[in-house]
Amino acid sequence: MKNSLQPESQMMSFGYKPELSEGAIKPPMFLTSTFVFKTAQEGKSFFEVAYGLREKKDQEDLGLIYSRINNPNLQILEERLCLWNREDDCAMFESGMAAISTVFLEFLKPGDLLVYSMPTYGGTSHFIEDYLTRQGVQSIAVRATDSFEEVVAKVESSGRKAQLKLIYLETPANPTNDLFDIRLYKKIADHFSTKEATVSLAVDNTYMGPLWSNPIEHGADLVIYSATKFIGGHSDVIAGAVLGKAELLHRLKVMRTFLGNMASPHTCWLLIRSLETLKVRLEQQARNAQKIADALKDDPRVEKVSFLGHLEPGSKSHTIYSQQYSSAGTMISFELKGGEEEAFRFLNSLKLIKLAVSLGSTESLVQLPAAMTHIGMSKEARAQMGISDKLIRLSVGIEHADDLLLDILNGISQSFTEVK
Ligand SMILES: *Cc1c(COP(=O)(O)O)cnc(C)c1O
Fold first, then answer.
1. Is 229 noted as a catalytic residue in this protein?
2. Which of 165, 186, 229, 390 is an active site residue?
3. 68 is a catalytic site residue
4. Which of 94, 97, 242, when mutated, tests ligand 1's pocket best, judged by the most ligand atoms within 8 Å of its CB?
5. Phi and psi at residue 247, in whole multiples of 5°?
6. Those residues with Cβ within 8 angstroms of residue 413's Cβ, 6 or more apart along the chain or in another chain
7. Domains assigned to the chain
8. What is the chain's mean pLDDT, rounded?
9. pLDDT, tens digit, for every residue of 271-329?
10. Most exposed among 25, 200, 363, 416, judged by the fewest C-beta atoms under 10 Å?
11. pLDDT tens digit string along 357-382?
12. Ligand 1 center–CA 200 separation, angstroms
C-alpha cells in the first residue's frame, strides 16, 4: 500500500483499521491515559521495546502502554505525515516551539556550538539567544548572503569548531522570504563532521512543506514544522512536528517521553482531519497568492513586493528556489508608498482579510511585522534584514481570488485617500 498510492489518496485511511473501532470510518478520539494489557507477558514485551531493551520484530508496532509514550491518534498522524516525503519517522508535539526546543535540548549540551539562520522565527531566536546562551551553548547567526567560506570562517573563529553539533535553518525566512541553500549547509555540516561526532542539519520547513519542499532530499537530517500553520490549516490548533532519520527520531522521542510535550489525542485528531485536505488547500492558496502578488507588482501605489514567484531568473535566490521548491507558496510581503501611517490605514480598512499573526490558514491573514511579530527586535536589526516599518506580511487563504483582490485594492485606496 505505502509505495503504490500517492499521499493524498492515503490521507483518509492509512494506518487505521476500522475493525478495531466498531467499524467507524474515521479514527475516534482515543481519550485515554492508559491501555489495558491482555497479559502480564504482553505488558513486559511492550515495555522491552519502549525502553529499548530489544529491537522491534518485523511488522511489530510499538504496543500501546500510556498516552505520554503513544496513543492511536498520535501514531496514525505520525505515520500519515511521513507519507508526503517518505521520512523514516515523525514525532508530533503540542506546539511548533515544543518541537524546536526539544530538538535543541536533545542535540545540544553546554559547551556546544550551534549555527542558525537569521532572520528566524521570534520564539526560536529567543530560545537560542536567551535560554541556550544561559546554558553555555554558543551560537553563530548566518545570513542568506553568506558563502561557504564565510560560514566556515565564522565557525573557525569561534574557537569551538570541534563542538559544532547542530546547524539550524529556517527557509524561506520570515517575513522576508530569504532563501537558504540547504545543500550548502549540508556541505558545511560534512566539513565539520568527524568520525567521533557528526554535525546534524535541521530545517524548519513550516512555510513550504510537506507539499513543496523536501529538505531531506537536499541533505537535512531533521525537518521541523509548526503544524499550527499549513498542516493544521484552520487556525484552530497549535502543534508541531519533527521528521527524519530513524535513529535521530528515536532519540527525540525518548526526550519527548520525559519532557511530556507530545501532542494530545485531540490535537492529533484535528490534524488527521486537516491532512485530508492539505494538498487541495495549499494548491488553492498558492494560485490565489500568485494572482495577488502579480496584481500588487503592477500597482503603482505599491513600492515593493517580495514573492518567491517573482525572483529574477539567474539570481542566486532563483537558483536556490528552483532547486528546493516546487511552488512559490502562499506568503507575500509588500510595502505601500508612504510609511507606517499608510500601512495602518490599509490594515484597518480590510474587510475580508483578517488582521492577525500566524499564517498558512484557510482564511487570509495580514500583519505588520515591525509593529507586531518583530517589534522585540531593534530597529537597526530589522533594517538590516529588510523589515521596514511599513512592510506588510500577507498569508493568502482559500477565499475567491477576486474577493481578496477587491479587499486589497479597496484597502490601498483607503490608505491614500485620507492623506490628501
Ligand atoms: C509559527 C512558527 C513557529 C512556532 O510554532 P508554534 O506552533 O506557534 O509553536 C516556528 N517556526 C515558524 C517558521 C513558524 O511560522
1. yes
2. 229
3. yes
4. 97
5. -70, -35
6. none
7. 9-32+67-275 (3.40.640.10), 278-415 (3.90.1150.10)
8. 95
9. 999 999 999 999 999 999 999 999 999 999 999 999 999 999 999 999 999 999 999 99
10. 25
11. 999 999 999 999 999 998 988 899 89
12. 21
